[in-house]
Fold this protein.
Amino acid sequence: MPSQPLLQRLGSLLAGYNYNPHWESSKQSFLEWVGHNRHRVDCLLLESVDDFSDVIDHLQKHNILLPTVVLVAGGDAISPGENELASTNGTATVDPACDLAISYHAAIACVPYNLLKELHRYIEQAIEQFLQLPHQKQENHPPAPDDTRHFLLSLQQQRLTEKLRERLGYLGVYYKRSPQNFLRNLNPSERTEVLDKLRADYRAIILNYFSDQGNLNQIIDDFVNVAFFADASISQVVEIHMELMDDFAKQLKLEGRNEEILLDYRLTLIDVIAHLCEMYRRSIPREG
């Protein structure tokens, strides 16, 4: 990261997250440090300067395969895996550095300077796509046993996955969340479908909460998983609970029965929220 103004800005942007950044201002010192610390690095941030191609060549030559975000001066943001598609179908303006980075590996994110505020999201995407990165797309042509690049890629993916699991709790699961599946990003019909699924699962929790069936925890886990990957908020869970309680209250009233029994199901809401909060809590990197 040769540019000091950019370095200062990135430092401010990343200060709000639990990253442990290490900066190098020269190409030589950067390549030496990465070579000695490749197994400690979760993601590279590269500035597309004049000697960018030399950096990529060195990483390739030494089989240093890591999640990477490239900061570029212009063009559109390119998410991991979109580089090759964007450069061939004309759907985005691809910076030459991004085009060059395809030769390194396909899980490269390119972020123009005007979108640096979204850097955290692109870092997450780069790591997520790297963990899913295949060495060869052709299933009929598997890599040879002595293919060093394939072996090192698999090893790096395994090490990164283990680091995320051990050091960051559920963050490995967190990286598998796709923003396109978040409730706020779904179209109306898809959003309705997910909310209907949540309502049905929550109804099953209510109906089984005070029974002797042993599958209650599994039912709660199913609900929490859907809510987590849809990025559902606690207020949305509360809203689902209140809607269901209103429905039950109307039914009890029609049957001439006391509605006070519904007060007991506040325990259900607390239990479900606790499970969901724990899922979110364990998806946040631990300090230190």
